[in-house]
Amino acid sequence: MDLSTLARVLEASPELNRVLSYEGVITYIDLIRILKPDLNCWQPPHQEGPPERLPLATHDFLKLCLNLEDELAKLAWHALRQIAWNAGVEGEDIHQTCARLKYLHLFLKHGPCRGIGE
Whose CA is closest to 51, among 82, 28, 27? Predict the structure, then answer.
C-alpha cells in the first residue's frame, strides 16, 4: 500500500480522518481484503475493480466493526475502496491467514447474523 496515496485520500476526507485512527484504516483495508472474494461474487463478470456500493450486509458488518455511523461507513467505502481493493503483498496467503485470526472476534461478533464469515 502506498502511504502517500493513503495520506492524500484521508486529507481529502477530513470527516473520515477524524473518526478513523491509523489502526482503524488498516483494519478497514484488511477486512476488505478478507471479504474481497465474496464481494467479487456479487459483481458482473465483466466488471473490474471494487463495486460502486457494498452489499447491505457487508456495509453493516464494516460499520459495526469500526463503530462508524452509516454515512461515515459509506464515506469510508467511497474513499478507501480502491486502496483496499488493490492492496496486496508478497505472501498473500500468509497475510490472509494472519488477518483472519486477528479479526476473528469481529467476524464472530458481527458476521453470522449477516451471513458473513460462515
Answer: 82
Q: How far apart are CA 98 and CA 115, in angstroms?
A: 21
Closest CA to 49 of 79, 25, 83: 83
With the CA atoms of 85, 35, 60 and 12 taken in that order, what torsion angle do they form, in degrees rounded to the nearest 10? -20
Report pLDDT for 69.
Answer: 95
Provide the residue range defining the domain that includes 25.
Answer: 3-114
Q: Quick one: pLDDT at residue 118?
A: 64
For the chain, how are helix, strand and coil distributed in percent, rounded to 5?
70, 0, 30
Q: How many CB atoms lie within 10 A of CB 106?
A: 19
- List the Cα angle 27/55/49 in 5-degree steps: 70
State how many domains the chain has: 1
Model confidence pLDDT, tens digit, residues 14-55:
888 889 988 999 999 999 989 988 888 877 778 888 999 999
